[in-house]
Write a structure and sequence with these properties.
Strand order of the largest sheet: 1-2
Oligomer: single chain
Shape: globular
Order of helices and strands: HHHHHHHHHHHHHHHEEHEE
Number of helices: 16
Helix content: 55-70%
Number of strands: 4
Length: 430
């Protein structure tokens, strides 16, 4: 198995390429789903997300190639959140987004434990076969049971309807960010807050084992506890906070919890500190559903895909840059986290890999996490300027509906603002 691992391309190159591809493609796919409907693109994104799974046992290089290209289409969240906006009323949206995020958290809790058990008991081949089967069932479920959410009057009658170059331009999202101050503030907030979170995912569990000296069983228990608490936070607590404090204040509260969590990870050196910080981390998981809600509430019904795609694209970019950033900060502080065998790192005297093992006093327990806390603090300062209600305007003409394959546009009058523009979404359920 070790000889196979030596043949795998550098993981940082893989995550960076996927992040850049999803950054460019997520707004485009979201925009096209605003034109042609959600279901087709939901199928497309789920298929390419799951396509690399069977290749894990066939060829590492084919797996690398397919998973790299899957970054173009593996942007399911942008389509799902636009789908939720189509079928829910405004006051239900935060709860719905919380449920979607909680479901994702639940899968992260259960799948590693199930996969690890099956791998030990029956081998890796069964795990890959089971994952492939579940992916196929997911695709079949979308085909059979998931209806189209975008109303017929808002999309063309067929896929043959023409689209403009602006809609097909993959770099259009970069220009759109600067056209609206609210969009720019939200994108900066997402980037500064999710960058450390993405980096944390890539190294935190190795950090727990090699620096804090958690055993592999303790790490698994930690993941399960934090995952369960995150589910509760995104389903029960999020709704209460949204009703009590409002959308923007909930975002600020979630960012505050994230700052506390990262600072605790950075300064903490005892196992109990990690457990306490994990409980705070569960509360910080409310941030992304709250941001998605404020974006959804302030975008037109026909722009839900593109605005959610922009947020998903920013997160994809962070997924590419975050691991490299955390690895670089660890390198600056002479801490090298490397893959370990299950039997390694459990001895009482296990130490982190250091360039100079005798110079332990110069090592900060978790320098990247402190850097992340500073980044989230900047994110919170930016989020203070996000208005609670503001109509997001991502193009000169507000695209209102499609009829028989033709697009009709409501243009703003020259020299003045658009008249009668409704900043909040109406119920678009069919």
């Amino acid at each position: 198995m070790r000889e196979v691992n030596r043949e795998w391309p550098d993981w940082f190159e893989l995550t960076t390429s996927m992040g850049l591809l999803s950054f460019l493609s997520a707004p485009l796919i979201g925009a096209l789903s605003d034109v042609w409907g959600r279901k087709s693109f939901l199928l497309l994104t789920v298929f390419f997300t799951c396509a690399p799974i069977p290749l894990m046992k066939i060829s590492p290089w084919w797996y690398f190639a397919v998973i790299s290209m899957s970054g173009v289409f593996a942007v399911t969240f942008s389509v799902i959140f636009a789908y939720v906006a189509d079928i829910t009323q405004e006051h239900e949206r935060s709860t719905a987004y919380g449920l979607v995020s909680a479901t994702f958290a639940a899968s992260l809790v259960t799948s590693p434990a199930i996969g690890a058990y099956l791998s030990v008991a029956y081998g890796d081949t069964l795990v890959v076969i089971l994952a492939t089967t579940i992916a196929l069932l997911d695709i079949c479920f979308i085909l059979v049971a998931v209806p189209e959410s975008l109303p017929e009057k808002m999309r063309p009658a067929s896929w043959g309807a023409p689209i403009s170059w602006e809609q097909a331009d993959p770099f259009a999202s970069l220009r759109k960010v600067g056209q609206d101050s609210t969009v720019l503030l939200i994108c900066i907030t997402v980037f500064l807050s999710y960058l450390p979170e993405a980096g944390q995912y890539s190294s935190f569990f190795l950090y727990l084992r090699q620096v804090i000296r958690f055993t592999s069983e303790t790490v698994s228990a930690f993941i399960a506890v934090v995952g369960i608490l995150s589910i509760l936070a995104q389903t029960v607590v999020l709704g209460i906070l949204m009703r009590s404090f409002g959308n923007k204040n909930t975002i600020l509260l979630g960012l505050g919890f994230q700052i506390l969590q990262l600072a605790w990870y950075g300064f903490g050196s005892q196992p109990w500190m990690m457990w306490a910080a994990g409980a705070v981390a569960a509360m910080s998981s409310i941030t992304f559903p709250a941001i998605s809600t404020i974006v959804s509430r302030n975008a037109d019904p026909d722009q839900q895909g593109v605005v959610q795609g922009m947020i998903t694209g920013i997160r994809g970019l962070c997924n590419g840059l975050g691991p490299a950033l955390y690895g670089f900060v660890f390198y600056l502080f002479h801490v090298e986290l490397s893959e370990m065998d299950p039997a390694e790192g459990t001895e009482k005297g296990a130490k982190p890999n250091m360039a100079n093992p005798t110079d332990e006093s110069s090592i900060i327990p978790g320098p990247p996490f402190l850097f992340g806390a500073c980044s989230v603090l900047l994110s919170l300062l930016v989020a203070l300027f996000i208005p609670e209600h503001n109509a997001l305007n991502l193009r000169p003409g507000s695209f209102k509906k499609h009829n028989n394959g033709e697009q009709s546009h409501l243009h703003c009058s020259q020299g003045g603002p658009c008249e009668g523009k409704e900043p909040l979404l109406e119920d678009s359920s069919v």
